[in-house]
Design a protein that fits this description.
Bound molecules: S-adenosylmethionine
Structural class: alpha/beta
Order of helices and strands: HHHEHEHEHEHEHHEHHEEH
Distance between the termini: 58 Å
Number of helices: 12
Number of strands: 8
Oligomer: single chain
Low-confidence stretches: 1-26
Mean pLDDT: 84
CATH architecture of one domain: 3-Layer(aba) Sandwich
Length: 332
């Protein structure tokens, strides 16, 4: 299955957002087509893989080493096709000889791709991997009611580019944090509002649009960004650090509005920021949006036009306080 097929499989089957969901993806079919186009034209996946290659060992260093030959336990929430999980597990297996991983995702096709990927990785022969076809919300309310010998807490939990989809960011972060051992690590990635030329383009567009007297106001879509996660971490008082990673998107074809792909990408810009597609903007607004996008672009030697985007990688380390209290109580 190609990356594109995978994305179509994954995103084509996302649940329809319920009333209380913050992120709305009206016109879902249109949104998924435009999302595919976005993924096809950006290097987000390659950049994340490179980050794992070069930087994941720093996260691994923070993960508490298991004592007395105990198994080190990982959970990948919204793991999708496991492309990131496999890279992280390969690195981790060099340090942790006994490794157990649970991959959670509601999409069965994606989990199937993950399983196939593992089969072709001899370096994962010694890693015990299980898969759970489930949403993060369902899973978070089931196994950790009590942490028994059979369902112990984890040393590392990641949520990469998936918090857009859960019903509550705070609920997910709090519940999965509770599933960590003291000193355990959580890794979260999400799009950033800073250094995000698509976000800036739309902000500029909104300002210009609100100055027009005849134009009907655009309807906002409350997409989530990394600062929404940071606000939650601050509220919960969790210790965290943030690393920003830049990637780029080829917007050639958008500016002339000629190609089908270009139009789909314009839909992505609109649908992730407002609850309407590009076609549904007034002609005047379409022109204003293109002008804003043109101002944000950088042209490269090969005649392509790119915009810069950023996602944040947030590392949360669970406080050791609980463990220290337990030790003190043990001494008493
Ligand atoms: C953008 S993909 C990221 C996949 C993977 N983490 C990666 O970085 O390659 C988002 C994933 O979240 C999954 N997802 C959607 N809703 C979810 C939910 N409620 N709970 C858990 N995962 C969910 C999708 O099926 C998809 O695999």
């Amino acid at each position: 299955m190609s990356c594109l097929d995978y994305c179509t499989a994954v995103f084509g089957r996302l649940r329809l957002p319920s009333k209380e969901d913050k992120m709305r993806t009206l016109k879902e079919h249109q949104y998924h087509r435009s999302l595919d186009e976005f993924l096809r034209r950006c290097d987000q996946e390659q950049v994340m893989l490179k980050w794992i290659q070069n930087n994941f060992s720093r996260v691994l260093d923070k993960i508490p080493s298991s004592l007395n030959g105990e198994t080190t336990r990982f959970i990948g929430v919204g793991c999708g096709n496991g492309i990131m999980d496999v890279e992280m597990l390969k690195k981790a297996s060099e340090l942790h000889p006994r490794l157990h991983n649970i991959g959670i995702d509601p999409n069965g096709d994606a989990l199937g791709v993950f399983k196939e990927r593992v089969q072709t990785e001899p370096r994962l022969d010694n890693v015990n991997i299980e898969w759970t076809q489930e949403t993060a919300e369902k899973y978070q309310n089931v196994p950790p009611k009590s942490f028994t010998k059979e369902a112990p807490r984890s040393h590392f939990i990641h949520m990469l580019h998936m918090l857009y989809h859960v019903s509550s960011i705070e609920g997910a972060i709090q519940k999965y944090y509770d599933m960590l051992v003291e000193g355990g690590v959580m890794l979260i990635s999400l799009a950033s509002r800073s250094n995000n030329q698509l976000y800036n383009t739309f902000k500029k567009f909104e300002t210009l649009q609100s100055n027009q007297t005849n134009s009907s106001p655009i309807e906002r879509n409350d997409k989530r960004y990394s600062d929404d996660v940071i606000a939650v971490l601050e509220k919960l008082g969790f210790e965290y650090s943030v690393e920003s990673v830049e990637y780029r998107l080829d917007v050639s074809g958008c500016l002339e509005r000629k190609t089908e792909g270009g139009k789909l990408l314009l839909d992505f810009v609109c649908l992730t920021n407002a609850a309407q597609s590009y076609e549904t903007l007034s002609e005047e607004n379409q022109r204003v949006l293109i002008d804003c996008l043109k101002e944000s672009c950088t042209s490269t030697e090969d005649g392509k036009n790119h915009v810069k985007l950023t996602f944040d990688i947030i590392t949360v380390v669970k406080s050791l306080e609980g463990a220290i209290k337990e030790q003190v109580n043990g001494i008493k």
